[in-house]
């Protein structure tokens, strides 16, 4: 479904960092320095992919130019503190700060345009903000506690396991909510395709009959009315201007009717 292609970005945001994460879990501190820049590139790409996916979903912007600049600065610092001056805790601080910066890029633009009309959408947005907050908290923890705590082998330490566990829980929570939103959107799309006329967006004949029968079987109201209308000389429009113009006439008529009725009235083609 074209409207769900943002899922490809979010999938990349999970898949791309999985490779360096798996590799680093088998490395010692010296090897971490050798592969710091390459691994950092994967982590930053994954962080921005999720940001891009959220921006595409809600119609915001992930600012690729600014993201590229932030990533370049982050990778340059990673290179210096791995190849020139080996400082593991500084590399972790820089990388986490860079990932936080990339994840926060689309927030402002999304808040300008997004309408969180459903509870699941609110939960999804909240879980994304939690991802961002965790990236910030992780940066602060690295800055405050890690220099004296990581010992000889960071990937064998309790800190490493704790950060992985926290990241897994938060990421899985976000992913499950995203899955629920995707299922809801898919069902809504299928329902609209079943119930709506593809050209005008109005109820089709089958759905109108179903909804009308529900209304007539429901609690008695003071009364109801049925209005039937037609477009005069519609064949002449098609003959003179073509079927595309005729389709546009039907769309405008449908929109006009929909705008002139109450919210709970039924308009069908």
As a percent range, the share of helical residues equals: over 70%
Radius of gyration: 27 Å
Shape: elongated
What is the chain-wise order of helices and strands?
Answer: HHHHHHHHHHH
* SS field, number of helical segments: 11
Mean pLDDT: 87
Number of spatially distinct domains = 2
- Can you summarize the main beta sheet? none
Distance between the termini: 26 Å
Q: Strand content of the residues, in percent? A: under 5%
Class by alpha and beta content? mainly alpha
Poorly predicted parts: none
How many beta strands in the DSSP annotation?
0
What would your notes on this structure say?
With 269 residues, this protein is mainly alpha-helical. Helix content is 73%, strand content 0%. It has 2 domains: 2-195, no CATH class; 205-259, no CATH class. It is elongated and about 80 Å long. The chain starts with 5 loop residues before the first helix and ends in a 10-residue tail after the last helix. The mean pLDDT is 87.
